[in-house]
Amino acid sequence: MLHRDYLLKVIKEFSTAVSKALRKALLGDAQEQPAEQIEIVEAELGRLLDFDPKTALALAPDSLIMVLSLSGVGEAVSQHIAWTLDKLADVYENQGDPVAQVRREQASAIAEHFGFNLTEAPEGFEELAEELR
Questions:
Q1: What is the distance in angstroms between the CA of the first residue and the CA of the last residue of the chain?
Q2: pLDDT higher than threshold 70 for residue 1
Q3: Is 93 exposed, middle or buried (0-12, 13-18, 19+ CB in 10 A)?
Q4: Is the pTM of this model over 0.90?
Q5: HEC string for the chain
Q6: Closest C-alpha among 93, 82, 112 to residue 34
Q7: 127: closest CA among 34, 18, 47?
Q8: Torsions phi, psi of 97, nearest 5?
Q9: What is the average pLDDT score of the chain?
Q10: How confident is the model over 65-82, as pLDDT tens digits?
Q11: Which of 72, 107, 77 minimizes the C-alpha distance to 89?
């Protein structure tokens, strides 16, 4: 029970921080500094994965899936991570950065492996998803 409560708390904190940064990067004006928001999102992804963000996000999609699977919480956080990676790909795409393709491939692989649709926002991201439509 304590583990579940802790995990819910971590996911809520993750969703709040990531939503704020993605909202600024995708919906804010040019003054919002998308690069700074990208750093925030990637740091939060690393924190959720309990992995250095630069290392985790440099992994090939299959390796990232293995990290998620071995973490013991992969099933619980996989949709949050994949959806975030997909939206992060949008930010990179808007900047013309080729990293967008890597993030999109990571997101798609995670969604396929864990069996969910990237168009469905996970809990905590519903409001942002609605704003992005």
A1: 36
A2: no
A3: middle
A4: yes
A5: CHHHHHHHHHHHHHHHHHHHHHHHHHHCCHHHCHHHHHHHHHHHHHHHHCCCHHHHCCCCHHHHHHHHHHHCCHHHHHHHHHHHHHHHHHHHHHCCCCHHHHHHHHHHHHHHHHCCCCCCCCCCCHHHHHHHC
A6: 93
A7: 18
A8: -90, 130
A9: 92
A10: 998 988 877 888 999 999
A11: 107
Question: What would the two tokens of residue 26 be?
Answer: 């995708």
Can you give the pLDDT at residue 73? 76
Kindly report, residue by residue over 24-74, the tens digit of the pLDDT: 999 986 556 789 999 999 999 999 988 888 898 899 999 999 989 888 778
Token output for 108: 């798609």
Take residue 117 and report the two structure tokens written for it. 């649709």
Q: Which amino acid is at 73?
A: V
